[in-house]
Amino acid sequence: MSNNKVSIKKNNDGLAEVLRALQQEEVIAYPTEAVFGLGCDPDSEKAVNALLALKQRPWQKGLILIAASYEQLKPYVDDSALSDLQRETIFSCWPGPVTWVIPARIDTPHWLTGDFDSLAVRVSDHPLVQQLCLQYGKPVVSTSANLSGLEPCRTEEEVRTQFGPSLPVLLGKVGGRLKPSEIRDALTGKQFRQG
After folding, report:
1. Confidence of residue 6 (pLDDT cuts 50, 70, 90)
2. Where are the beta strands (DSSP E) in the chain?
3. Has the keyword 4Fe-4S been applied to this entry (predicted)?
């Protein structure tokens, strides 16, 4: 069996292992535009709770979903709350490093939105994130891969040091960005975090 895992990692950078882990409601790590992210299946409360415990993050803060396309995000956001101009502004930044806070659908799980009636979402331009979300068929949760008080991981080795050898990791390099994604409110344009 360990030969199979070595073969998977060698052949596709751990994608098959990471996809299996997502299906089994486990937490994964993967490279994004600036840092490694921790992620899981957004529809699994068990997986999200495991991610929050690992990250030592309160659920009330809400989470970010990262996707390959806006279509993947539509089951979670209230597209009807956006004007054509707001939608056009969002799409002009995607795929890319801007996260937009969009009103959530009424049935979006509370473990994603936290204390809010909105959800932070991004369509990534990182090729491995695109591949991961396309292969999985939906977005994944995205939060920086770091334990409380430590710097976010930028390499697989840093992920292994902080989280141990058993965490499934999609192998690859982070993009060239030095700062995390910018976060903006889709309705007002207000900037929550500078990118």
Report:
1. very low
2. 28-31, 36-39, 64-67, 98-103, 118-123, 140-144, 182-185, 191-193
3. no
Torsion of CA 155, 183, 65, 144, to 10 degrees: 30
Q: What's the pLDDT at 2?
A: 30
pLDDT tens per residue, range 65-102: 999 999 999 999 999 999 999 999 999 999 999 999 99
Per the structure, the count of domains in the chain is: 1
CA 179 to chain centre: 16
Query: For the domain that residue 11 is a member of, what is the CATH number?
Result: 3.90.870.10
Which residue segment(s) compose the domain that 135 sits in? 2-193
Q: How far is CA 1 from CA 6, 17, 150, 160, 167, in A?
A: 9, 12, 34, 21, 17
- Going by the DSSP 8-state scheme, the letter that residue 157 receives in this structure is H
Structure tokens at 125: 């331009």
